[in-house]
Design goal:
- By secondary structure, this protein is of the alpha/beta class.
- The protein folds into two domains: 231 residues, no CATH class; 71 residues.
- The radius of gyration is 39 Å and the shape is elongated.
- The N and C termini lie far apart (119 Å).
Length: 341
């Protein structure tokens, strides 16, 4: 798989054809979003290992202040959370002559928004996903971006002034990020900061077969047929939520899919719990009936014992003092004297 692809799954034995798709009528952006949903289910690391896996995917986020608003990825690794504001473009946005000027303007607007509630330059990143880019250009960008990430903005800016430490293409690409449409060019150090937070990825329609294979790993029966069905459903969910500005986190996605798919990593025990609860309720009822019956039997038994004890006591008293009146027999000698008084 080429450098800069947003998919790197382990392939299954029952591999889907490279050109296989989940159905017609879906846009490039739908397919990109569906790919992220599949990676969320499989807990893949879609961007960089240090950023972790996707915990949330938001669609069409202009209303909450994003300029790169096609998608917002929320990634988490341990306690560290990173947001990635993504622009999705099916056409060519980066060439050896640099970045598309409209994207450059949008990237700077996102960077300078000043609202850390939506984008924090200290920890969040920007993403550009394209459908068309030549391999040499993508390689040059990744080399430049790698340097921007690993060194300080000042040192990167200095390196780009030295022909021996950077290529002509890298310098042209970097300079294109400084061409602001309003005429005010950002300085080189600030541009280096932006470059360190900018990621470019390629998504090609001919990789849909790879996503179907990933979906095949996600479903329990592991068949290409079921994997294709899941991919088609993810495409539908992506299209539907792009239209409404929706979102998914992992629990919501599992819940939505659970009625129609058995997911390998997320077994649905609801029917089993229902059976357990039903059996438990029946057992409680039966135990209640047995317990109630035992209480009644114990009550009757104790009444009979009390009656038997009383009758025995009366017989013994009569036998010991047969000539006394009943009151004296019951009360004894002292009682008899009191009665005579």
């Amino acid at each position: 798989m080429g450098e800069g692809s947003i998919l790197a799954p382990e392939m299954t034995k029952n591999r889907a054809p490279t050109k296989a798709t989940g159905g017609g009528g879906y846009t490039f952006a739908d397919k990109v979003a569906a790919g992220f949903l599949a990676q969320m289910l499989k807990r893949k690391l879609p961007l960089e290992p240090d950023l972790g896996s996707i915990t949330e995917l938001h669609f069409e986020t202009r209303d909450v202040g994003h300029v790169l608003d096609d998608l917002l990825l929320v990634l988490q690794r341990g306690q560290d959370v990173t947001r990635c504001a993504v622009s999705v473009k099916s056409n060519r946005q980066l060439t050896k002559a640099g970045f598309n000027s409209e994207f450059v303007q949008d990237a700077w607007e996102e960077w300078r928004s000043g609202n850390v509630a939506t984008f924090d330059p200290a920890k969040d990143i920007l993403g550009l996903i394209v459908g068309v880019i030549d391999e040499p250009t993508l390689h040059e960008w990744h080399e430049l971006q790698k340097q921007a990430t690993s060194t300080t903005p000042d040192r990167l800016s200095a390196r780009l002034q030295n022909d021996g430490q950077s290529s002509a293409t890298q310098r042209v690409i970097f300079d294109s990020l400084r061409k602001s449409p309003n005429g005010s060019a950002p300085d080189a150090v600030e541009t280096a900061r932006l470059a360190s937070k900018l990621r470019v990825f390629r998504f090609s329609d001919d990789r849909e077969g790879d996503y179907i294979n990933l979906c095949t790993e996600i479903v329990r029966d592991g068949t290409v047929k079921e994997g294709t069905k899941l991919w088609s459903r993810l495409l539908h969910l992506a299209s539907e939520n792009r239209a409404t500005g929706g979102y998914f986190d992992l629990p919501k996605l599992i819940r939505v899919l659970g009625a129609d798919f058995e997911l390998q990593d997320y077994p649905d025990f609801r029917s089993d719990w229902g059976k357990i609860e039903s059996v438990g309720a029946d057992n409680v009822k039966a135990a209640g009936r047995v317990f109630a019956g035992e209480l009644v039997s114990e009550f009757v038994r104790r009444q009979e014992e009390d009656r038997s004890v009383a009758e025995g006591l009366q017989r013994r008293t009569s036998a010991q003092q047969p000539g006394l009146p009943h009151a004296e027999r019951v009360c004894g000698g002292a009682g008899s004297q009191l009665l005579h008084r």
